Amino acid sequence: xxxxxxxxxxxxxxxxxxxxxxxxxxxxxxxxxxxxxxxxxxxxxxxxxxxxxxxxxxxxxxxxxxxxxxxxxxxxxxxxxxxxxxxxxxxxxxxxxxxxxxxxxxxxxxxxxxxxxxxxxxxxxxxxxxxxxxxxxxxxxxxxxxxxxxxxxxxxxxxxxxxxxxxxxxxxxxxxxxxxxxxxxxxxxxxxxxxxxxxxxxxxxxxxxxxxxxxxxxxxxxxxxxxxxxxxxxxxxxxxxxxxxxxxxxxxxxxxxxxxxxxxxxxxxxxxxxxxxxxxxxxxxxxxxxxxxxxxxxxxxxxxxxxxxxxxxxxxxxxxxxxxxxxxxxxxxxxxxxxxxxxxxxxxxxxxxxxxxxxxxxxxxxxxxxxxxxxxxxxxxxxxxxxxxxxxxxxxxxxxxxxxxxxxxxxxxxxxxxxxxxxxxxxxxxxxxxxxxxxxxxxxxxxxxxxxxxxxxxxxxxxxxxxxxxxxxxxxxxxxxxxxxxxxxxxxxxxxxxxxxxxxxxxxxxxxxxxxxxxxxxxxxxxxxxxxxxxxxxxxxxxxxxxxxxxxxxxxxxxxxxxxxxxxxxxxxxxxxxxxxxxxxxxxxxxxxxxxxxxxxxxxxxxxxxxxxxxxxxxxxxxxxxxxxxxxxxxxxxxxxxxxxxxxxxxxxxxxxxxxxxxxxxxxxxxxxxxxxxxxxxxxxxxxxxxxxxxxxxxxxxxxxxxxxxxxxxxxxxxxxxxxxxxxxxxxxxxxxxxxxxxxxxxxxxxxxxxxxxxxxxxxxxxxxxxxxxxxxxxxxxxxxxxxxxxxxxxxxxxxxxxxxxxxxxxxxxxxxxxxxxxxxxxxxxxxxxxxxxxxxxxxxxxxxxxxxxxxxxxxxxxxxxxxx
Amino acid sequence: xxxxxxxxxxxxxxxxxxxxxxxxxxxxxxxxxxxxxxxxxxxxxxxxxxxxxxxxxxxxxxxxxxxxxxxxxxxxxxxxxxxxxxxxxxxxxxxxxxxxxxxxxxxxxxxxxxxxxxxxxxxxxxxxxxxxxxxxxxxxxxxxxxxxxxxxxxxxxxxxxxxxxxxxxxxxxxxxxxxxxxxxxxxxxxxxxxxxxxxxxxxxxxxxxxxxxxxxxxxxxxxxxxxxxxxxxxxxxxxxxxxxxxxxxxxxxxxxxxxxxxxxxxxxxxxxxxxxxxxxxxxxxxxxxxxxxxxxxxxxxxxxxxxxxxxxxxxxxxxxxxxxxxxxxxxxxxxxxxxxxxxxxxxxxxxxxxxxxxxxxxxxxxxxxxxxxxxxxxxxxxxxxxxxxxxxxxxxxxxxxxxxxxxxxxxxxxxxxxxxxxxxxxxxxxxxxxxxxxxxxxxxxxxxxxxxxxxxxxxxxxxxxxx
Lengths: 869, 467
Description:
Strand content of chain A: under 5%
Largest sheet of chain B: 9 strands, mixed
Number of helices of chain B: 13
Largest sheet of chain A: 2 strands, antiparallel
Shape of chain A: globular
Structural class of chain A: mainly alpha
Number of strands of chain A: 13
Radius of gyration of chain B: 24 Å
Order of helices and strands of chain B: HHHEHEEHEHHEEHHHHEHEEEEEEEEHEE
Oligomer: heterodimer
Distance between the termini of chain B: 49 Å
Largest interface: A-B, 116 and 101 residues
Strand order of the largest sheet of chain A: 1-3
Number of helices of chain A: 34
Distance between the termini of chain A: 77 Å
C-alpha cells in the first residue's frame, strides 16, 4: 500500500525543484508508529473517514465545513471552528468523539455510524490516535544565506541615514534653509536653474490647501499678501504657525495617514459588515497629528499600544484605540475555515505594517523567499508568529453569510456610541427572549429547508428560504443591539484593536503559503536584513512590543526615511523615492539621497515631530517656487525630478468637496460625534445602505407570540417596502461636515469621494491616482450636492450686490481668489445673455437667480478650481 | 458652438509632454486624433500584442453555479449508476432528469433544457473540463473575475480595457449591466488606474445581504447623475460653453497643462454620454422582430432578453467589454422545477443574441462567454438538488475566433472532476486574453514593487479551441 506520506514527499520535492528551496525530511520526532497501530488505522479508521467524512471535511470534497479538515493528522489535531477534532487519548476533549455519538454535533448528519464502528473510534482515540497521514516533517531551507543577508545590509536604504553637509552651491544666495541647499546641489549637478518665486496670492492658496485642505478666505488672502510685501519671511512663518495650530491641520494630515492605514468602516469584500467603532481610530489619528504626537510614539501605539504602560485610563484607552491600525483591514468574513481566515488576517497585518512603516514588502515571503530583497520565507513566519500570538478584535456578527466574528475591546472610559442608549433590565431581558425565540425559529426553518418533503405545512422552499434570510438578519440585529450593553443594560464603550493571545505560539512555515502544508516551526523574530545585530525575542510575550520598539528605534534605517518621503510628496508633489512603499531593491533610487537623509535625521533629531518636518519644508524656498511653464526648464527635467519648479497639483476628493462647501458658506467645521456608520450598529451593508429590517417590520416580527403571529405576512410586505426606494442610500444623505468625517463603507463609498480618485480603502495607498473622467464631469454638472452649493453661493452674491457685473467679479474672487480678466468677464456676459434666451415665461427674479446659480456652478466646474498652482 | 476651435495646437503641446508627466492626466476620452497617435489617452484604442480574433467581449455570467451535468456535460454513466453512492459516500448519484440530444452538424450533446440555444451548437465551443479552487459562491465568483479570491485584484474586464482601450469615446469602455449586489470588486480596477473599472449600469439585482434588494430589474436610475434635474440640454450646453471657455483661457495662460486638457475632454464626453447612454439603453426603436428574437415582452425571457439586447447595442457602439449577470442558479433543492425555469429565462435571449450578432456580422469578432462560478455535484444530497462542484464544470464560448461545434476536455464518468485537458480559471483567462490579441504574460502592471498579471504565475492558452 502506498501511504499518503510518500505522495506528500513527492509533491514537496517537485515544489522544491521549482522554487530552488531544499526540503529536508525531518526525523520523526515522535516514536515511530507500530505496525499494528498503523494496520488498525488503515483497516478500521481511514475507510470510514474517506467514505463518511471527506465530502465535507477535505480540500478534495465540497470544502472544509466548520473549518475542519480530517485529511491528515495535523489537520485533525488542529481542528476547526469548534476546537480540535481529536485529542489523542482523551475522549472527553475529542469533538469527533462527541459528534459521532450525536452529542453536540450529529455526524455523519444523515445516519449515525454503526455501534461497532463507534467502538473502533473509541479504541483508536484511546490508543493515542495513531495516524500515518503525516503532512509535516518537512523543512524548507531558504536559499537566502547569511552572507546574502550580510551583503543585503549594504543596500542604501538598509543602512542608517547620515546627515551630510551640502557642498557650496552657486545658488548659495538663493537658499534660505538647509533643505534649499540640498536641492540646489542637485541643480548644480544637473545644470538646472530654479524658477522664480510664486506670487504671494498663489503661494497662500497653496499653503492653505497643503496644510489644512481648505482655501483661504478673501480676508486671509489679502492679509497674507499685504504682510508678504513688508516682510516675506515673517508673513510666511506667522501664517504657517497659525495653520499648524488649527484643528483642520490634523483633519488634512490625518487623512493621508488613513490612506495608507487602509482605513474604512466596514469589512469590504464579499460580505460587507460595518465596523461601528472604527471612527475612534480615525479620531485618534487626527488628534495625533494635531497634537504633534512624536511619530515614533504614534507608530508604537498603533502596533503595541495595549502593551505600553500608561499613567491613566484615558491614556490607556487612547493606546488601545491606536491598535485599531491592525484590526481595520479588509476581511474575508465569508471564509469558513478559521485557520485560513487567520492566515489571511496575519498576512494582511504583516503586509500593511511593513509597507506603511518600513516601505518594504515582506508579505512577498509568505509563499517563497523574497524575489528581490534578502528576506527569506522564514523571516515572514518569524513575524507571523508575533501576530499569531496576538488576538485581533474586529467585531463583526456571525450569520449565515458572515462566518467570522470576534469580540471588541471594552475601553476603560465612558464614551459609548451615541445611538447605544441605556436599556432597562426588562428591555434587555425582553430582547434576550426574542433572540432565543428567533434562534429557535431559525433552527426549525433550517431543518425544514434541508428536508422540504418533511415540512409539516408544506411550506415552499423558496418562502422558507426567504424567512431564513430574514430570521438570520433579525437575529443579527437583535444580538447586535444586545452586544452594545453590559449585563446591567449600560452601553459599553468599545473599540477595535489587538490584545495578546491566550496562547503564545511560534508559527509554522507554510509551504507555498498553503495552510494544509505546514513545515517546520519558526521562532518569533524580526526581519534579519534590517537588524543591526541578531535579535532574540522574549519567549513569554508575543514580541509585538519589541517589534514596535524595533520599528521606531533610532537605528532602524527605514522608518524615518519612509515618513519624511511621504511628507515631502504631499507638499512638493513628487516623492524623493517615487514608490513610497518600495524602498527595497526592486524600488526606484532616491532622486536626492542627501536630501532624504537630511530630512530623516533632522526628523529624528527633532523628537520625530511631523509638524517640524512640515514647517521646515513649507518655509524653505523650494516650496515657494513658481509652477509657471518654462520650455527650457521643462525640457531639461520633464518629470521635475530635481524640483527646479513647483508641480501643478490636483485637489484630492476631500479638498475639492471641502472647498466647495467652504466657498458656498455651508461647511460645518465641527467634528461630528462618531460616524454615520456607528449609528447603524453592527450590520451587513447592501446596495441601499445597511441591510436592516425596517423598524415597522421589526416591531411586527418581534411583537407577541412568534408561532401564530398574524402580523407575519404584513411583516414581509413591510420589509419589501423598505427596500423599494432606490434613493434611500444613507451614504448620499446631505452632509456638511468635512469630508474626512464622511462614512467609509468599503463597498459603497460616498459618490463625492468615489469619483475623484479616493484611496481604495482596501489597499495601502501612498499616492493616489489622478484621473479626469466623464463621471467626475457628470457629478459636477448634475449632482444635487453641487447644485445645492451653487445655489448657496448665488444667494451670497445676491446679498452682496444687486449689480450683475459686481456679482460676477465677486464670484471670481470667492472661487479663485483673484479678479476676473477682461476676457473672462466677456465670457460671463455671453453666458448670461444666452441663459436669458427664450425664458421670458419665467418670472424675472427666478430667472436671474437660476442663471446666477448656473454661473457659480460653472466656476466650481472649471479646471482652475481643481488645481493648485 | 465655438468650443472646438483649438486655442493652441494640442499636438504641439503633446509632443513636448513627456509620458511620465502627462500620461495619467489624460485619463479622459479623446476625440482628437493627436491623443490616439501619441498614446497619451489611457482609453484610446491600443494595438494588441498580436493579431486578435476578437475585438470585444460579452460575458454572460450565471451566478450560483449552473449544473453542468444537466445542461452541457452529457453523462450516460451517471444514468447507468443512478442510485449508487457518490464519490464521497453518503448521498446518491442522480442522473439528469432531462434528455440530451446531439445538435447541429457537429453533433454536440446538449440538454433538452436549451431547445433554442441547441440550434446554435455549431457556434459553441464547450469547455467541459473547467475547474477552480473555491467551493463557495462569493470566493469562486471573485476568482472567476479576478483570478484571485484572496486579495483584491483587477477584474478581467479592467485588464481588457487596460490592454486594448476602447472604441466609443462617448461611452465607458467596460460596462456591468444590472450587476449583482455586493459585487464591486468583481468589476473593480484595484491597483490599475480607476479609469479601467467597470461602470455599473442599471439596478443591482439578486440577493444582497438583506431582503431589501429585490427591485424591478430594469427600473430605477441607470447611472448616477446621468441627467440634470433642472436644466434643458440647450441651457446646459450654454453652461458647458462657459466652463470650457474658462478652461481654454486657463490653458492659454498656463501654456502647458495636460490636466486642463483632461478636464476639457471629460466635460465633452460627459455631455455626449448624457445623450448616448440613455439612447443606447432605449430599446424601443428596435424592430418587433428583433425584440421577439430575444424573447422581449414574453413571459420569463423579458428581463434577460432586454439585457442581452442592450449588451449587443453596447458592443455594437464600440464598448469593449460588457458583462450581463443572471442570478439564482444555486439549486440545492427543487432542481427539477427550478432549473428548467432558469434555463428557459436565458435560452431564447442567448439564442437571439447569437443570431442577432451573426446577422450583423458581429459574431466573428465578438467573443461571447457563458459560465458560472462552478458547477454542481452529480449526486443529490437533498434528494432533488445538487451540491456545489468546483472541481469540474462547463463553460462555453462562441464567436470571436473560437472553434464552433467543438467540445474541449472532459470530466470523469460522473462529472465530479475535470480529468482530460483540464482548464483552470487561469487557463480560461489566458485564453480569453489571447483571443483578444493579448499575451497574458506580457499584460502586466507594476504595483507594490512587482509586475502583476491577471493569471498571476499560472495559466496557459487553450490552443485547441482557437479556430
